């Protein structure tokens, strides 16, 4: 008993010491775990703060979800002449606009004008991207909720298309396919396609109706027709709403002088006659070169239907308003009246007040003699008719912008300027 008691007496302190050591170890382990958790939380918080301060970190974009009652329109080529005017009109009408442009023909200056006019970051955004880049196009459609697409993006010079046809088939036909596939994949149901009267070629009868056979005679017109064919074929087995607008020669600029036409200097030789007239009036070039005086027209020069850009944009907006699922609308957008190049030059002389020197040369490859529209269908179905039909007045409006923007939108700007 004595030994047993002594052993018990000695064992009690040992057992007590062991329990205290265990408690102390547990406490230290818990303390270590708690410390590690707190440290992890601190590190995560610090990372979030750093990321939020980083220029590369962005919270969810307002363009990534739909806003009730507001139509979100993707405007491809929205930095270009016609596209920028369309974006301006859509923004004025309280639409949400995303401009996509690779700036190969467009002007960042036009986008900056729009951003100054509409500073709300939830109403307008610009994305620098090439529609030929499938990964970029898919990313654009994945990250934004579009209600409609207005597809303007295209190289658009007849003469250039005859010299570099593959570029035109890629830029117009292939890129349109890319946009169409992205729309189908992401459920965007409305397409307003900006086409051209060049798809008709040189019709035997005037004026041109929507039923006039399409027999284009240059790669520009052929590429546009192929794009139209793709869109129409796809629409037959989908519920997409499609509007195809075939428009004629565009002139003029924003009546309030905010936007205008400013092609790259190296592209002037391919550009519109209005641009050449203004360059001659400004003394940038010595005179105007009229190509072709032996066409079967009243004065031997080409006859065209000149449509003011403000009217053209209005037609696109009306097309958007009238687009219906499972329906394809095809419309000519013109004044219904043809004007010869000689008439145009005389109007330009009066608009600028400059006696422009004119040199007459041989025909330009791929041109056609006479083209003007019958716009009765678009009047009947969309209640659209051209309002700016005075050629000299449209040229005067454009001339005011040209005089105050002798260098276009300024020197070519970088994305970070």
Using brief descriptors, characterize the structure shown:
seven-stranded parallel β-sheet, 12 helices, alpha/beta, Rossmann fold, disordered C terminus, 417 residues, two-stranded parallel sheet
Q: In words, what does this structure look like?
A:
- The protein has one domain: Rossmann fold (3-Layer(aba) Sandwich).
- Helices cover 45% and strands 14% of the residues.
- It is built from twelve helices and 13 strands.
- The strands form four sheets. The protein has a seven-stranded parallel β-sheet, sandwiched between helices.
- Strand 5, helix 7 and strand 6 form a beta-alpha-beta unit.
- The longest helix has 52 residues, at 2-53.
- The radius of gyration is 32 Å and the shape is globular.
- Residues 1-22, 50-57 and 411-417 have low confidence and may be disordered.
CATH homologous group name:
NAD(P)-binding Rossmann-like Domain
| CATH arch. level architecture | 3-Layer(aba) Sandwich
Strand content bin? 5-15%
Cα distance, first to last residue? 98 Å
Strand sequence of the main sheet, in spatial order? 3-2-1-4-5-6-11
Percentage of residues in helical conformation: 40-55%
Radius of gyration: 32 Å
CATH class: Alpha Beta
Number of domains: 1
């Amino acid at each position: 008993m004595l030994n047993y008691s002594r052993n018990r007496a000695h064992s009690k302190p040992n057992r007590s010491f062991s329990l205290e050591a265990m408690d102390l170890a547990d406490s230290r382990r818990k303390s270590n775990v708690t410390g590690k958790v707190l440290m992890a939380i601190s590190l995560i918080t610090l990372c979030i703060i750093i990321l939020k301060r980083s220029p590369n970190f962005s919270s969810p974009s307002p363009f990534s979800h739909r806003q009730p009652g507001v139509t979100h329109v993707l405007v491809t080529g929205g930095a270009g002449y016609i596209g920028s005017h369309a974006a301006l009109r859509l923004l004025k009408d309280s639409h949400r606009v995303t401009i996509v442009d690779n700036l190969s023909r467009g002007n960042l200056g036009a986008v900056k004008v729009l951003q100054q006019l509409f500073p709300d970051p939830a109403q307008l955004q610009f994305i620098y991207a090439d529609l030929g880049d499938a990964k970029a196009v898919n990313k654009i459609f994945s990250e934004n909720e579009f209600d409609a697409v207005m597809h303007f993006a295209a190289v658009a010079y007849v003469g250039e298309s005859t010299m570099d046809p593959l570029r035109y088939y890629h830029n117009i036909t292939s890129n349109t396919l890319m946009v169409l596939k992205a729309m189908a994949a992401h459920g965007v149901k409305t397409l307003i396609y900006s086409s051209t009267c060049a798809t008709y070629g040189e019709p035997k009868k005037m004026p041109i109706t929507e039923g006039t056979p399409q027999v284009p005679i240059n790669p520009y017109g052929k590429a546009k027709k192929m794009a139209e064919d793709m869109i129409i074929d796809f629409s037959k087995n989908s519920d997409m709403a499609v509007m195809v607008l075939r428009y004629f020669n565009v002139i003029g600029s924003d009546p309030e002088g905010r936007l205008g036409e400013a092609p790259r200097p190296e592209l002037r030789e391919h550009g519109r006659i209005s641009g050449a007239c203004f360059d001659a009036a400004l003394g940038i070039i010595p005179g105007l070169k009229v190509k072709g005086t032996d066409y079967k027209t009243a004065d031997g020069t080409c006859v065209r239907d000149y449509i003011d850009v403000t009217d053209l944009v209005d037609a696109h907006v009306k097309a958007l308003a009238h687009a219906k699922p499972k329906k394809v609308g095809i419309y000519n957008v013109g004044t219904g009246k043809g004007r010869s190049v000689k008439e145009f030059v005389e109007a330009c002389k009066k608009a600028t007040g400059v006696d422009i020197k004119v040199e007459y040369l041989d025909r330009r490859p791929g041109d056609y003699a006479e083209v003007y529209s019958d716009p009765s269908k678009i009047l009947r179905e969309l209640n659209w008719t051209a309002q700016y039909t005075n050629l000299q007045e449209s040229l005067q409006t454009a001339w005011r912008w040209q005089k105050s923007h002798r260098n276009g939108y300024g020197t070519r700007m970088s994305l970070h300027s």
